[in-house]
Amino acid sequence: MAVGDRVIAEGRERGALADGTPWPDTQISTGRFCNVFTFRGAEISSVHIRP
Question: How do strand 2-3 and strand 22-23 relate by DSSP bridges?
Fold first, then answer.
């Protein structure tokens, strides 16, 4: 979603750690995220990450 000078991206992550442990583990993380990027012209001026 884009609003004014901000872009909001939601998503899910999944995979495995180096030792083979599956990620997300559903206890520490469910694998969902939401990032809010603020732009100044064509460059990102800030990013806020919400797990």
Answer: unpaired
